[in-house]
Amino acid sequence: MTIALRGLATGLVTSALALGLSACGETASTGSFKGEDRNVAQTISNFQSDATSANKQKLCANDLASAITTRLKSAGGCEAAVTEQLKQLDSFGLTIQSIAVNGNSATARVKSTWSGKSRMATISLVKQGARWKISGLPSTQ
Q1: What is the rounded distance in angstroms from the CA atom of residue 121 to the CA atom of residue 131?
Q2: Which of 35, 80, 105, 107 lies in disulfide reach of 76, CB 3.0 to 4.6 Å?
Q3: Nearest-CA neighbor of 96 among 109, 77, 114?
Q4: May I ask the CATH architecture of the domain 3-140?
Q5: What is the pLDDT of residues 5-40, one digit of tens each?
């Protein structure tokens, strides 16, 4: 794997994990969502919970899309990359603002807060089999 590709893959994990951690073990609420939107919200909630508990096995197997975990294989593997990134992150809160599902892809607008600052981000997800998985964080504002 080239340094640029390794940086892209680990950067994606860093961004994803930064959005996944939450203060005091809270998880993103899924209550206001229905149908596939609720399934997408549940994936984000599970991701946040797994990141908060530093469960690298669940993060890699259940939460991150295969495209991400495949890219991380050459960088020492998903679990190794996740372990390193978890060591560098502080806790913060996460709120799902909206979800848009389009076939086997979805986006979720989330608001994260850490160190007293709020940031909006769009999380991309892809449906793999019967499960939604996080495939990227293409934009933050």
Answers
A1: 22
A2: 80
A3: 109
A4: Roll (3.10)
A5: 334 344 545 555 555 443 344 456 667 899 999 999
